[in-house]
Every structure is written in C-alpha cells, then in structure tokens.
Structures
1.
Amino acid sequence: MKYLKISILLLILLLGISTVSSHGVDVTADTMVVANDSNGKMVKSIAESNNINISVYKFTSEDEVTHILEHSINNTNKRILFTAYQETANDFLKKHPDMSNRIIVIDNVNDNTTLEGLQNIMNVPVENVNSENNFGLPLTIGIIIGLLIGIGCGAYIMKR
C-alpha cells in the first residue's frame, strides 16, 4: 500500500510536469542568409560591399535548413534570406504562410536579386521583446512546482 501511494504520487507529478522540448538552442544570428558552397562567398561579398551587416551561413544539407526553419517559428525576430535550398524554404512557407514576411526566398540568384533580397530582409521589422517581462512567469512556475514537491516530500517524511 505504501509503494502504491508513492507510485501514484510520482505518476501525478510526471503527468503534471509539462513536456520539455529537446530541440536544442538556436545559436545563429537573428538576421541571416542561408547559402551553400556555390554562392556563399558571392552573397557575403555583396553584403560587405554594400555595408549590410548580415550573417551568411553555408549549409550542407536540407535537414540543417529545416532545423533552422523550425527555430524561426518561435523566434519572431528571426529574418532569413534564402539563396540556397529554395525548395525546402518554399515547402516550409506553404505550411507556415504567416512567416512569409520574415522569410525571403530568391529563386534566381544573381548579383542584382541578391542585393535586392539583402535590402528587403534588412527592412523587415522585428519585435522588440522586453526580456524583463519574460522572466516572471517561469520563475513563478518554478516556485510553485518546488513548493508542491516540497510539500509532498514533507508530508511523506512526516507520515513515516
């Protein structure tokens, strides 16, 4: 009977805890260009010659690109210009049309279209998120969870 109560308590705690996504942390810049080996240097030189401060990332697989696109769903400040892996980006935009203002795809990559794309992506407005407001909710949730676990453990120890 004693182990049944403990098992039920553990089950309730496990079911009550929200799931944690082990997706990983996005370490890329908020404004970026997705390129490949064939056009990465060209895009970087066009950006530098026009004094556009943007990070150019060379990707080697569609899976990496899909991973970055998944990160952009939750990061409303993420702006991405695609000069490579256009099909992956277009497929993603079909599933998430609300992100079409933050994701620009260049299908015909040349100097002029790349410069126009760079200027367009830099002009996309970003949200200014006040990070101080985002700290209160996780802190409160953590305190509540800690109190519940502490009360449960305290009650268990007192009944012994």
2.
Amino acid sequence: MSTPDSPLSDLCTICHIQPPKYRCPRCSIRTCSLPCTRRHKLWSQCSGVRDPAAYLRRNELATEASFDRDFNFITGIERSIERAGRDVENRGIKVGENTGYVEDLSVVGLEDEEGLVAPEQQDRKRKRGPPGAGNAEGKRPMMKGEAAFLRRAESAGAKVVRAPKGMSRNKMNESRWLPKQQALTWTVEWITGDGQKTMRTCMETSSIADSYDRTFPLPKEEKKHNKQEDEKSEQKTLEEQPQEGTVQDQPSTTEIPAPSTVALPDGQPETSDANAQPQQPSAPSEPLEITSHRDVYFYLHRPRTTTKHPVLIPLSPAMTITSALRDHTVLEFPTIYTLSDSPDAILSSREDPRYILEEEYIRTHQSPEESSEDSAEVQDNQLPPGAIDLADVDETKVLEVLTKDLFEPTTAA
C-alpha cells in the first residue's frame, strides 16, 4: 500500500495511487493494473511488444533475462516458418524445388517484388514475360494443357468459370484435353438425392446414361437380367418387321414434270429455272425426350445464381456430355444431380421447393438489366404526352406551308 509520503517515482506512472506491479516490455513504463496498462498503450501509442533490436549494455547481455529474450525470439521465428509452411501446403502455393522462392508471387501479393523471385524465374520474366502472361483474364497463370482445354471447351459451346487457385474445387478438377484422342475428358460431380457426392472423369462423347452406369455400376445379376431383356426385345422387333418379299417393286423410271411458267407482276425480272435455287426448309432437330434411366432423372446444376436453392437443367439420358454442356456455364467442372423426381414433380412443388428448374428461375428471378432493357424499349415506342405522331403527315404539304410563311410579304398593322 502507498503512504501519503511515498514519492511519485515509487507509484504507478498512470494513476499515481498504487505501487507498480508490471513493467512494459517495450518502453519499461511501470503500471499497477491492467486498466492502467491499457491506458498507457492508448496514451503513448505503445504496442507493448519488446523490440528485439533495442540496445543493451554489455553487462545486460550475459544475464538470464537476456538469454530468455533471445531464445523466445528465435523460437518465434521457427514457429512463424512452420506456420507459413503449413499455410503454403494448405493453400496449394507452388514453391521452387530446394529453394525458398515462390513461383507465383501474385498468390501472396508480392508480384512487384523482384528480389524474391528465383534467378531462373527472373530470366523467364525478362524474356517471355511473367508466368501466365497469355491469360486474358489476368486472374492466375495457366497450368500445362489448361489453355488447350479452355479453347476446346469454348469451341464446344461450354463456358468454364475458373475457381481461385488453391480452392478445393480447383484442386479436384482433372478435366483436360487429350491430344492423341483429340477429345476432352471432363471431371463430373454426381450428386444423388440423399446428397452423396461422387467424382469421376468422363469422355465428352459418352452419353449421360453411359457415364452414370460407369460411375454407379449395376450388380452382376441385374446386368445379366437386363441383357436378357434387351435380347428378347430385339428378337421381338425383328419378328415384327415385314419380310423383303412383301415390299412392292418401285418403277425404274420416274416422270419429270415440265417446267411451268409463272406470271410475274410488272416490274419484276423473270428468272430461269437454272438460276432459281429454292431453299429447302431444313428439318428442325427434335429435342431429346427427358426420360428416366434406372429410375432416376438427370439435371445439370447451374452455378452462380441468386437463390439459395439449386437451379437445375433437365437432361436427357441419351445426350452426350458435349451437348449437355452446350450454351451452359460450369464452375471448373459440371455437376449433375441424379434425382428420382421428374421435372413435372419439381415444378409442382413450388410452395416448399427443394430444387428450382432453370425455366422457373428465369421467370421468377429476372435480372435488373433485362428488366431495365425491356422498360427502355417500351418507353422508346411510346410518345411523350402532348406529342403528335408525324408518320402520316405529307412532307410536300408541310414544305408548301413553310415557303408561304417565309416568302409571302406580311401586311403592316
């Protein structure tokens, strides 16, 4: 306890009431309690952390306290290095072999620091530019074979959104371009109705049903039963086909109708039959029917939506991976849901939906840009109040009235 006769040097430097108990490691200010210590840090803008480069006298070096400070400083550096190594491994940052240089400095925010780049990396930077300079997006450098994969995916009509480097979805993506086969192989994520996820690579030319069968193979007994049923159905169709003898012989000659002349209206030139090439209407390709395969329906997941429910696009089992991804966006690789509910069943459950179809999402979640464009078109077609539509006004009459007003002499009042 302090006495009325105690000097100020023996009391707390903040409150000047109690004797000091603590000493600041940074500036050696003595305080009596935690509130006084916090007040000291606030008033003096002191961090409270000891400065390892602070000057010490020679007689202060060979002390236990000095050895403890040095030991804590060195062990702190070791812990920081270990923590940085674990962070590098967890984030997937590539580091040069047998060196302490980081290959991709943009990951750690040091792309402008040349002193931290390995010598071979500096040479490549001078000659060929920084790694990934050919990347138009500028987000992260291209991996080996990634540019060819993205070009092929773009030519096939699929838009691939790349996840940030080191993210789990980026690490799981094994999609690549096979130069020998001249085909893409996609990493497909299959999600069942109970939420189970399965990853498997599939060729772009394989159908959705075949890819699903390879990912979730049937038992041997069920395979054998299905094979027998297929053979029976094929034999039945062959029996129902008519025999060759019942087909009527077609005549060997066909009559060619004479070219008929058509009366053209005046002012239009006549065209000969040789020059006239009528365009035959191309038969529109019928969309594949959305059916079930092994009692499940297939849906492509649409990423980056504004709703909390997954937005799904129905797929036909006979579609190939390429046709299923055409004009659609995927995040690194496609995600396909295998559900027992049909598209009609998903549409009927609007009150408490678990999933949303794409057509319903587009109808109910129209983007503001589209709505503003629609409103702008309507405003352009509508006339402002008080305006007159001059589409049916004769220009010659207007010109006559203007010439009369300009060139006829006016009578003075």
3.
Amino acid sequence: MSSAATFFCDRCGAANRPEARFCRACGQALGGVDTTTNTIVGLGARSSTVSSSTQAPTPSTSSASSANSTFQLPTSSTTITGLLQPQHMLKQRYIILANVGKGGFGAVYKALDSQFGNRLVAVKEMSQNSLDENDRQSAADAFQHEAVLLAGLMHPNLPRIYEQFTDQGRSYLVMDFIEGEPLESRLSRLKGSTLPIDQSLDIAIQLCDVLEYLHSRNPPIIFRDLKPANVMLTPNGNAFLIDFGIARHFKPGKARDTTALGSSGYAAPEQYGRSQTTERADIYSLGATLHQLLTGYDPSETPFHFSSIHLPEHPALEGLADLTMQMVSVPVNERPESVAKVRAELQRIATLYTTGAALTSPPTISTRIPLMYRAPETLPPLPPKTPAMASSANTTGKAAKRTTQYQIVKQPNTVYICSGHSGRVTAVAWSPDGRWLASASYDKTVIIWDAASGDRVWTYKGHSARVNTLCWSPDSKYIASAGDDTTVQIWESANGHLTYTYTEHSAPVNAVAWSPDGDYIASGGNDKLALVWQAQDHEELYRYTEHKDHVYALAWSPDGKYLASAGRDKQVRFWNPFAELKKPHSFWQRLTSIFSTELEPSVLKVHNERVNALAWHPKEYLLASASSDSYACVWDVGISYTQHTKLLRTSGGNSAKNSVVWSPDGKHVAIASNDKTVQVWNVGKERCTFTYQGHQGYVSSVAWSPDGARLASAGVDRSVQVWQIV
C-alpha cells in the first residue's frame, strides 16, 4: 500500500492518483484538492483504512462539495515488532512458533499456550516505540478497544480473546489462532474470476450470522470494516470476522461518529463523518463484499459505483442481484432494514440453489417470511451400494435426488418452523437447560437454534460427511456429534470450539449418548461396536462387541450404571460397562465371582426388524424402543434388567418407527414415523392421544423440551418443527 494520498472524484467517487488532473473513471476535473494528509493508526497488518476529519469521497448521488482522504499506514523503519524468534517463551507461558504476519507497527505470531494443553493461539503484538506521543496514545486506545470489545463476545465466527498484557514496550493480545487464509488472498488468486456461487452464498450467510449477533448486543456493535481482508476462511469452510480495531457501539441520539473510519470501496458513505453509522453501514459493506464475490470486481477501484451482476440462469438465483444492489444503495433507508432479513433471503436462495429446486415468484427482501416454505424432497434411505451397483450408477448418470418439492404448512399448534439445512435432518435435541435446540443433517452440519424464537444462532461445520446423531452434555456446555466420517466430535455449544475428535470407530457412527453424570460418552456404529470412553480425557473404558450388525441406538439407564444398545441385529442388549473394571484376576477372585450377584448382559428380543431408537424413562426402569417393523414398544425391565414385562405395543401400520422419546413426567412417549407423523401415546392408558401431521416426509427424530411444554421433530423435509400438544 502506497503512503501517498489518494484523491476521490466529486462526481463518481473513483480513487485517483494525487497528481491526476482529471478523474480516470468519468473525466471530471479534480481541481481544488486539499493535499493535507491524515495518518491512520490501525491494527490489521493488511488493512488499508481510511480516516478523514473533513469530507468523504463523494457518491454521485450526494451533494458534498469536496472530496479528499488519505490512506496511509505507518512505515517507520524503526519499528521493532516481529522480532520474536521460534521457541521464544513469552510471559513464561506462550511458546512462539512462527511470525505469520507483520505490517506497520503490528505483528502476529502463531504460538502454543503451555499452560492450557499446548493449544494453538495467535499472539498479536503492537510496539509503541516508533510512534510520537499522539499516535502512541491512539494506537494504545485502539488496541485496548479491540481487547475489551472482543472479551465480551462469544460467537463461532469470532476469535476468542484469552489475555492482554504488556512486555518491554510492546502490547500483546492473545486470541484464537485461526488456521486458514484471508478471503482477500483467495480472491487475489482468482485474478478477477469468482468463487462458485454456493461458496459465495455460504460465506455471505456466515457473515450475516456474525453481524446479526453483533447487532443484537446491547448496545449494538457496528463493525464498520467488513472487507475480504478481515474475513478468514478455514479449510473446512468456516468464515471468521477479524480485526475489531474500529468497531464501535451504536449510541442512540448521537448525530455523528467521533472518528470517520473505514476502507475505501467497502465503507458506507455515512462512515465518512456525515452522520452516525448504524447497522445498515455493515449491510453496505457486506453488500460490497458479496458483489465482489459474485462479479470478481474490486469495489475499492470505483467506490460507491457497482457494476451490474450477471449470474447463471437458474430459477433459485432470481432476486440475488437485486438484493446485492439494494445492500449497496447510497441512501441508507433504501438498504434492507436488518441483517436478519438479508440472511433469511440468502439462506432461501442458497437452499434452493444447492438442491436444484425450482422457484417461482421469489419474495423480495422486504417480504415477511411466509408460513409456508418449500424444501426439495430426497429419496428414502437406501441399502449400502455394492461395487457393481456403484459402477452401474456412474455409467447411467442419473441423479440421486428428485426435484419435486415439499410444501410445508404451519399447523395451528406449530410454534415455529426452522429452515436452514440443505439436506435431510437426522437428529434433533434440546439442551438440558432448555435454551437451545441442536439439529444434525445430511448436509454435514449441526445448527444451533434459539429455542425461544426458532432463530438460527450458528452452524457447526466440523464434519466432512453427513452427521447422523448428536447429544448434549448434562450441563449444556458441550455437544457430541457423529456421522459418516467415522468420528465423534466434542465441541463447545456456545461457540463451536472443537475440544476433541474421537477416532476409534472404523465405520460410520450412528449413535452417541452422554452419561447422566457427564463423565462418560457411549458411541456405536456400523463397525458393530459400542464404545464407552471418558468425556474428559477420552480414554476408552469398555468395548462392547456382542452385536452382530450395525449399532443404531444407545441409551444410558437413569442411574447411569447400565447401557441399552440395539441395531440391525434386531436385539436390545443391556450391559454394564463398569463390570469389566471389576473382572476377577486372581484364583480367589474368580472363585468368589461364581457366587457374585453381578449381572450378566441381558438380551431383549422383541422386534422383527432393525431397532432404530431407544429411550429410558426419566426415573424408572422402563425402556421404549422404536423399530423398522412398524412397532414401538415400552417394557418394564426391572431393576435387575432381566425381567421384561411389556407395557405398550403401538399399533403397527406399515411405517417404520424412527425415534422415540419420553415426556419429562414419564407419562407419555412420542414416536416419529415414516408415515410423516409424530404420535403421542399415553403409556398407562395404552392409547394414542395426539398425532402431529406437520411434516411432508419421513420424520427421523423427535425430542421433548425439558419443561414438557413443547416437542421438536425433524426429518426428510429438511425442517425442524416445534409444536405443542392440543
């Protein structure tokens, strides 16, 4: 970045060299330019940030009379940042691994936190030694501002801050190390070409999520510097928003911002000092970034002027160009009123585009979300392909998905419908504290929803294949998710931070269950194994190998002593994973064990097809099971787990039963079925008391809220529906 001033055309806003007499874009004379320079102190090593205490670059629709700004980063040769060498120990804690970025008076290091399991962190360094007194104070204030602002935020698309300190004239900020590359670098490699549209939409939706979170703070936080250089992309597709040096809180009643800051081409006109920036300034920057993603044109070359967008002919993309241009409108009131509405529209477009569904009369951004939405249908589960079948499928070239659409209509007792997955939803679960819902999907993601409103909070994208199951830790702090990538991933529910990946399975994982005391996790899969391992140190406790086929269901007994497991071998097995630890070794122990009352594993043979789900009564020794034989059963297995008394066998019909759950009071069970319904049965009276019919495809999962007031169900139609019994 050159340190020379850059001048802007009064007519069109284009950036011009300081010696230019006429605008390179429109030919307007550039006379009467004030050559006073303004030096900006910034934190980002790659930032090109604009500051102006006078007039801004002027859009053609504005009546401002002058236009000049300076783009300048400190270039002092005396800066002493970036000198820490690999293996240097900082603050007797952080082991420097490499210098990963340096610019102006700042540097960023990759380091290990030796006091926290050698986790990777980023150490941001700022030196004040090369600055004069005024700039030193400005830099210190900006550095402190970023630290304080980030410390109060928690979102999966934001880096977490761990510590701030000063050492030998340098200030340091320790935060998450984000493995990846700036979006700016990704676009630079394309040399004017564009990313695939689905990737561009995904990035934009993730940025909407984090902006919506910032804007929902009290008071709202306006980022003010959204641009590709401040977006980090990880290898698994997550987008992180970085560099909060100029973010600010919105102050109601204030006429204008104290300081005009932003990046040329991405900053909204109001950021140049005319008025106080609002959430719509971030919408403008997001629109500028989205425009660049879709067209390949760098908006910094012609600020406030955006070329028309030409997209491939696809019904789902109708309205995307108009939405983008609306986001970069110069008049503030012509932009969408909230990021939430932008996200909803982008999500609708992305879902339809990635699934190949046709769209008629797409709603505009100002349209309220209707009670009816559409999601493309997918085929029911298929048996594993043989090599011959796979070869045949490759030569026929037939699509695996149908293009017919579901029309999901909100029922009178439906509280809300969550749409956001692009594949069938395989599992849904309430957090034990009742605040959140989590849903897993064939689209390789887990989405966290606000249980009160149904709004999407954020999306976990750590899996490389479809996610089959998930469960919450008893304290609601963690989620364990598992799927076809053969892993069980443990991550923080508040921010998606991955804490551990369990890799002991050799085939897709179908079931995962957290013990009631939170100490153990059980997982089962297509490798015919049910494994029990410690939740904290991940050490394997027990390996159960009695199943003859795939394991689809696992459930802990209410006392946490036994596990029930079931699957394709049609049998429900009860076993004690802790008994292995007590196995006798000496002759005397083996002799006395003959007279021991320790229970041997028990087998319950009640179904004629695979068992898809198991659920224990919240307090008693009652077990519910759901099977592809079209029946759901409830059994009193007794405290010894050897007495099997049938209490309920639902009427079969012809549809497989996929999921079963107890009500918190233990009086009812809810059963999800392939007949597109969820039935609620009174166990004591042995009759169905309610049937929910809001789904338009197989219902794969059902969950009861901890307070018993609502149920959540999900399935092939890609929706999560929350409803009440009436």
4.
Amino acid sequence: MRVSLRYQVLSGVLSVAAIAAVGAMTLPAGTTEWRPVSRPVAAPARPVAAPAQRLAAPTRQAAARKRLPAEISAAKPARLVTTTLDHTGRPIVTVREVTDKTEAQQASTALGVEVDGIVRALEAPTGTDTYRSRQWDLTTMRVPAAWERSTGAGVTVAVIDTGVDASHPDLAGRVLTGYDATTDQVGGSTDPQGHGTHVAGTVAALAGNGIGVAGVAPDVRILPVRVLGANGEGYDSDTAEGVVWAADHGADVINMSLGGTSQSSALTSAVAYARSKGVVVVAAAGNERQKGSPTSYPGADPGVIAVAATDSADRVASYSNAGGYVDVAAPGSAILSTYPTALASSGYASMSGTSMASPHVAALAALLVAARPGLTPDEVESALEDSAVDLGAAGKDNDFGYGRVDAVAALDKVAPEEKPTTTPTPTPTITPVPAKPTVTTDVTARTVTYGTRTSTTFKVTAGGEPWAAQPVSLCVSAAGGAWSCTAGKTTSTGTYTVARTATASFRVRLTASTASSTSTYTVKAGLAVARGAKKTLTVKVTGAAGQKLTVQRYVNKRWSTVKSYAATSTRTVTGLVSGGSYRVVLSSTSKVAGVTSQTVKA
C-alpha cells in the first residue's frame, strides 16, 4: 500500500522510506521457499512476525471497504495497489485509478488490495561541518583493517533511492545500468535529488584514488534503482517494483534508506521474494525518536535488517528510532559522502540520519558475502549481530539492537583469519629467482566527456628496472562488455601507451606475465545549455542522441519537470517563464553516463 514514507536524515539532505517490489521468477534449486504476504487494506500498521497465508476473498474485500476514502468519484478518484502472483509465484504489483467504491472493491483474485500512499522525504537541519576532513565512521567500524581481507569485489549492492550520479568521479566504474521505477524504464544513473548518491558513496566510493572519500566496500558494484522523484516523493508501488527488479537483476544486497509508519503487503511480499533468492535486505530504522519512535517499515518487516544510527561518541543518535525491531546500529551522524556536483560544487556533503547508517551495514554485508560466497541472508544477519559491539543495556536493546557493527569482528565470524604456523622449519636453500614484473598506470579512474581523445600509459618494471621490449597483453572492455585482447610489446623504457576516443565508458587492462593494472574511464554525454531569445533555452547534446532529456524548473524550493523530449544535437526549448531558473537532465545509456546541466535563467 502506498503509505507516507520519509527520508531518514538529519542534515539538510534526505533519507527515505521505501516499499517492496513487483515481479518474481521461478526459484532456483536449493533456495529457501517463500510465501507471499497477504495483508488486508484495513490491517493495522504493526511489525509482522512472519509472512501470513493468503486471505479469503470476502475478508480481503471487507477490509478494503474499511480503508477506502470516504468519498470516491470522478472528481476525487482513488489509486489502488493490487498484489497478485504470476504463474511462477512471482509477486506482481499493479496500480489502477477507480472512481467509485463498487469498482474499488472488485479484487477477488488479489493477494492484497491497498490504497496507494505517497512516499516523501523528510528534511532536517544540517550540522555546521559540511565538508569533513576525515571519516570517523570508517575508523569506528575498523573498516581499513577489514580491507586487508575483503573489499567487496564481485558483489552487487542495489541502492533503492533517488537514483545515483554515475558521473561522479569517486564512483567511476562502480555504477551499473539500473532501473527507474518512476518511469518504468532503464535508468537510475542520474540523481536530481542527491540522497541516493550520498548513500552510494558510503557503500562504494573509490579508495586510494587520491580524491574525496572512501566507501565501506570500495570494490562492490552499485545497482541504482530510482523509486523517488526529484522532489523526494514517490509511491509505494514503485518501491515494491524496485525491490523485485533488483532481486531479478543480480543484487546480492539491497539497501533502502527510507521508511514509513504503515506496512504494505506489496513491500513485505517483495522483501520475502528477494530473500528467497539469497538477497540480504537492509533498511533504515527511522528518524522519529522525538515523536515517540513510531514503528518504521520496511525496517520492521520480516527478514529486513533494521539499522539505528550512532554518533562519533558511540551514543545513539538523538533522532534514531527505538524499538524491538531494531537489529543493529551503525554510524549515521555527520557522515561525509559523495553528492551530485550539479547540486554541490565540491561533489561532497555531510548528512545525518538512519539513512546514512543503513548503507554502512549494507556495505559490511557485501564485505561478508565477498569473503565467503554462498552465505544466506540469515547467516549474514547472524554474523553482524553476534559480532556487534554491545552498547547501552546489556544484550539486545531497543536503541542499538544487538550493538554497533564492527567490520573486523563480523569477518571473523564468517571467515576467521588463519593464524601463522609456529612450527620451526629448516633453513631453505636460497636459489635466485628472476624478478617478476609489476604494472602501474597513470590513470586509475577518470571521467571524460563524449568524444574526448584519451591516452593511458602503463609502466612495467621488474626488480626496479624497466621491463623493456617484453611481450604484454592489452585488453579493452567497452560499456561493460567482454574483454577484447591484443598482443604487444613494451618500449625500451618499459612503457606501453594506449590512445582511444571516448565514445562509451570503457576499461583498459595491461597484463605482463602474471601482473596487470586496469584503468577505468566513465564517459559522460556532452551537454551545454545557454539562454537564447527571451523565454527560450538552447540545448546542445553530444553522445546521447535519442535519449530522454528533461527540462526542469526550480519553483517552491524544488525541481519540477516541465518538458521532456528525445535528445538531438541542438534544440531550442521555447515557452518558458521569463526569468525562471531551469536546468536540463540527460538520462544515462548503457554506454554513456547521464549529466545534469548548470542552472540557467530563461
């Protein structure tokens, strides 16, 4: 049911509450059987101990009558969400608009019928330290020490949120092609609101690249799923669809930094479906402590790891919800992370909320799955809870759950570090071994505009000397495709230079013997917006012809879409409000990252 959900933040950007997804597939052999949740429209909002059996149709319809608005007419239509199953048992969420109560009550074959509520962001004031010089959260969780054993390589984390700015240099090469549930199209790689990019940076910002911040799991892939619009609002049905889509498209972990005070059977069924496919589901616990800590969903849904927030002194945050559904806690106050450069020129922002705490736990779950593939969601949750630092009252409590997560201790639970042997060994016979080559590159990760001529130079050394005139293998992967390799030789100084015109995002890898190094290029579309004649803008695009392009106007402290069209190389946009503030958002493709223009006055 579309209920009112809010961003779990306390710092001037938003954290949000989401709903479960549509869709499902036949379960692979060996997966845990799941059953859909059936909840009548009138069911009270409360934690659910376990998925229930399907309701009989008369009970469902009677409940629907209780929950329907007092008046339904052509002038005041109602949006209803219906959850059904396809022939494989996959949950399907559909939305329809009805104009009379008789029509609204006709859902005899549905698992659940719910009034579609609004999801929205809850803004809160920011702290004074907007740009922090260090990340206290990683130190508190002992993340750098954990990187010696796992960085999340090979794991995909779905960020169900406002989208993710794939062109951000600190996320270069990490963001996959995702899905925009608000438009039912491939997308999600732009973020007109900012919250999703902040969450994604906490999970997977590049480490050791010399800029910005580091994520908890810097080698994971981010699967962006947009369920909220540029104004920070959306529908339960879109969030439910996003959860199922992520589960069907390779997500190992799902993060939902969002929540509301009413349950949705669509969401609960979608979470159950995702878990049946081995997906770990993590959500924010809520930011309404000052309002009595009303139970927040999906955090309180069965199988979801609900995360409370702590500050730099390991105290529960003043806004963080308390309740029996809280499983663990994680740093959530004054968290520095990535932010769209179109919204903050530095590309970074400090935010607070359980929205910021949740991705710390989702990323730690990814470290565990990477360290020991095949872990079930229950095993991951147990490892997080059993290894947490017990804070507050002894044992599990309503503020911290089982405690604040610890990366090293959690890894010890699933993949104990091997202790070196102390058995004396004979002194070995020393035989000179030829030095092995090492490979370095002058470009680790870079974002360039479509059409740019790139140059990457690799340097190969062995024993500190140039590996001159030696055979190497050069491989290129364009737009996430398969590697294409050719043989070559280093120069007399041990270098190898590759020139390439950037027409799609790509990776370049040079291998010398068993050593290799990779450079990642994110190619963004070219977008230039200028004021033309009065009430017009001139828009020029390169590298994304035919892709969706939206014109947005800033009114009442929010961006609203006023025009959409397929991108062409040059276009004059007319009919704008004189003196109005506008920007243009170009969506991503599988080859080229989208981009958001600067603000221009019409």
